[in-house]
Amino acid sequence: MAFPALKFRFDWRPYQKRVLDAIEHHLSDQRLHVVAAPGAGKTVLGLEAFRRLQKRAVILSPTRIIRDQWLQRLTDFCETDDPLSLDWVSNRLDDPRVLTSITYQALHSKSRIDEDLEPKEEDEEEAETVDAAFVVETFKRHQVQVIILDEAHHLRAEWWKVLDQICEAIPDLVIVALTATPPYDSKAPEWKRYEELCGPIDEEISVPELIKAKTLCPHQDYIWAVDVSPTEKERIKTYDDQVKRLLEHLVDDEAFCTCMLEHPWLDEELDTSSVYSDPQAAMALLVFLKHKTGEAAPELYTALDVSFKEIPELSRTWWQVLLEHLLFSNKPEQNAAASAYYAELKKRLRSLELLRKNELSIVRSRRLERSLALSERKVDACMSIHKLELKQRGDELRQVVLTDFIRDEALNTARSLGTSTLGAWPIFQGLCGTSPIAESIALLTGRLCIVHETLVESLMEQAEGQKVVCAPFERMPGYVKVSGPLNLLTNTFTALLIRGDIKTLVGTGALLGEGWDAPVVNSLILASSVGTFMLTNQMRGRAIRLDRSKPEKVSSIWHLVALDVRGESGLGDFHDLTQRFETFVGLSQNSLSIESGFKRMQASGLEIGLTELKPYACFANNRQMVRRYRDIAKVSERWKAALSGDSKARVVPSVETEVLPRLRAYHLWNTLGHVLFRLMSAISCWLSWNAVFARNKWSLLFAAVGIGTAWMLLTRLGSTLAVLRIGLRYLPVDGSLRQIGKALCRALCEAGMIETPYRRLRIRTVQATDKSYYLSLSGGTYYESSLFADGLAQLLGPIDSPRYLVIREGTFLGFTRDDYHAVPARLAVKKELAEIFYRSWARCVGPSDLIYTRSEEGRAELVHAKAHAFTAAFKDQTRRLDRWQS
Fold it and tell me: Which keywords belong to this entry (predicted)?
């Protein structure tokens, strides 16, 4: 049998041991879900889980390369040089053994090993529909009880169906899900389905942990900004001018204004239920009326509970909301004339290319944003970064440029196709034409591979006489086009990169992303428009592997952004860049902290340029980044300092808030008021007591007042002590935050969503140097910390459309305020859970009301909450992030 012969032959790393020590607890729900950064040893963790479970298992991997890596890693557990020679190991679905390693494609297509699909550059087509009954029968017949999902984020629609049917047919099946990049940024239904199959995330092994353990290398992110080309500027200007002319026309168009003034929401007998169904559109209507007429609509103002001064100025954002409401709401109360006008308006918007498939492009144009993401000027940026890196690193440079597309269409036609967009071929061509080491630059993609002729001999030597063909490349004298099996070419080019024959390798993320490993890479240029969590982390992982031959290695990762700061729509690529930084943690530029988010970059050159010195935004940013990059030697020491301290520190799901919740001010004022009242009462008692012994004409009056005051203080002693207790809670600057966190934590524990005993949990509040606050839950599992952070972000963030609200109303000395907080979604699915949260809130924070927003009264309160959010001069800045802390 397999299991007695299996034993890991090395020492477990601390982070691996942490996961393994808790494995029995995590498997209580028959699910083990581990998120581990590249280099964490997911494979050996999966094999150890297989050894401890001692059940027949099937391993599913996204590619044949990764499938074979699983079997090869068995050499760390038993004495063998050829794992396939073991009689309990298989890589065929039609011949499963105790341990069977196959690809997701093989599961889906029931094909043998030689029929497995090769990994492709672009999105693969799904294989033929699988006979799920055959797979289920195979699993049952061979008593498969464990499925190990490697890189589980690869699961696709058809693969889901198969796995769902397998899990349904075999209820006791254990799922072990391993991934470096869970689909955090997927839509809610997709994430729900992913979590139902894989289970909640049990453990996370983060990049900082691996750097601290010297498994990954120190690194830093940099940003290179480019001004878009004249052609792209013209497109942006054309779009902005079209939108501007359209909106100006609508303001002056009598027919449009008549439709607005005759809107049913402006009737004296207003049906508030329709307003409550779309309060943002109602606010947009008020914004337009304020801009156009400067007059009020009393009924609508009353329904939204706002004043005329609180109405924002008309902007493209409000135009987008208003037009979407008018064009797509399909309200039956629209009159015939309005309906006819809106139909004509739709035609005009389509002719201006501002409306396509019911997607209105007033604020942003996806076509323009796509153009910026693939700007031809980013090709120039790659050349500038290459020159900078070569000057700094010299012969030690091992650079990889990753793109989304090849863009070699021009090679297949004799006529010019105009300016080229961002792609592997344009970048390779540009680098070879400008770099002093052009002979050390190579191109590796799925259908086009090119090296300099001086490397042919080394290449053929690495290929060991296998089927590799080199032919002169006519478009570039001195270079040759290489053909052969893709896996062989990938291994050969990688070997030349490791040797230093190739110093810069240009390729696609699909080929050189997941599964590709070259620890020597110390410079990575992400010439990619993809900003998803999954792909961003995959590509960054190529540069942060530790090079055992150069343990002092420090990597640089370059992100490209194209800007047109003169145009209102020229910042789409910048916004996408900031979202990309939400997907990974890194070292902050101006402090020794490690966290996710764009804020840590402190890109003041870019931010100042965007606000004050617009024409110089790109220049200011790049000069700042060049200055930082020249100090890259200090990055290693900064990582070391940031990681020093508590040995139990790890990446913790956290919430950052820049402004303390308003309810702290309320509690503080009310606490001081009650304390002041009781203090004055006590002074009155003392004066009355003295008056009794003074034996003057006021003695009896003071005595009566004193007795009454003393009786009141004694009867309200409990409430007085409660007031003092609240004051002690909220007087610390982070007091209200801590109490809100306690309320949420207690509710999650009582609801059974957090299994760790409440007494072992702690709410951590940390104030940063910029006066912002970080909140997190310590003492529990990673999943519990993540659940807490998600709920807290909803609780402190803007009001959207929650099922329940907690509302606290108060008045003191003329000071009145209503504070609205959304009950976190996980605690709002049922009334019983919402009431658990409400009781916890009342106990830890203070008196309030629980409102069900799907009722008539509740919808009114929800509208008030959202309306005040729309009109606020500023919003509490709250964001969910991950942060390294103990």
Answer: Membrane, Transmembrane, Transmembrane helix
Report the alpha-carbon distance of residue 865 to residue 842 in Å, rounded: 20
User: What does the alpha-carbon distance between residue 783 and residue 310 come to, in Å, rounded to a whole number?
Assistant: 41
The burial class, CB within 10 Å (0-12 / 13-18 / 19+), for 442 is buried
Same domain, 615 and 597: yes
Question: Which among 453, 446, 458 has a CA at the least distance from the CA of 470?
Answer: 453
Taking the C-alpha atoms of residue 664 and residue 726, their distance in angstroms, rounded to an integer, is 11
At 290 the three-state DSSP class reads helix
Task: Label the pairing between strands 99-103 and 57-61.
Answer: parallel
Same domain, 429 and 453: no
| Neighbouring C-beta atoms of residue 221, cutoff 10 Å | 22
E strands, 541-696, in order: 555-563, 585-587, 594-596, 650-657
pLDDT tens profile 464-475: 878 899 999 988
pLDDT, residue 812, reads: 41
- The segments of the chain whose pLDDT lies below 50 read 111-130, 661-675, 719-734, 811-815, 873-875
Give the list of residues 6+ apart from residue 192 with CB closer than 8 angstroms, or none: none
> What is the three-class DSSP state of 853?
coil
pLDDT at 714: 55
The domain that holds 569 is classified in CATH as 3.40.50
- Two tokens at 320? 């987008």
Rounded Cα gap, residues 803 and 800, in angstroms: 10
Q: How many domains does the chain have?
A: 6
- Parallel/antiparallel/unpaired status of strands 146-150 and 174-179: parallel
Choose one of 588, 609, 642: the last residue of a domain: 642
In contact, 67 and 28? CB cutoff 8 Å: no
H or E element: which one contains 302? helix 298-304
Radius of gyration of the chain measured on its C-alpha atoms:
32
For residue 654, which phi and psi values (nearest 5 degrees)? -135, 170
How far, CA to CA in Å, does 238 sit from each of 221, 243, 252, 294?
34, 9, 21, 31
Per-residue pLDDT, 17: 92
**What does the DSSP assignment read for 6-51?**
----SPPPHHHHHHHHTHHHHGGGTEEEEEE-TTS-HHHHHHHHHH
Are both 59 and 200 inside the same structural domain?
A: yes
Strands 399-403 and 523-527: parallel
Note the Cα 857 to chain centre separation in Å: 35
What pLDDT, on a 0 to 100 scale, did the predictor assign at position 53?
A: 94
Asked if 866 and 641 count as a contact pair (C-beta separation under 8 A), the reply is no
Give the ranges where 524-616 is alpha helix by DSSP (H): 533-540, 572-580, 604-611
- AA letter at 793: A
What is the rounded CA–CA span in Å between residue 224 and residue 574?
A: 11
Prediction pTM value: 0.84
Question: Residue 212 domain-assigned?
Answer: no
On the CB side of 381, how many CA atoms lie within 13 Å of its CA? 35
3-state secondary structure of 247: helix
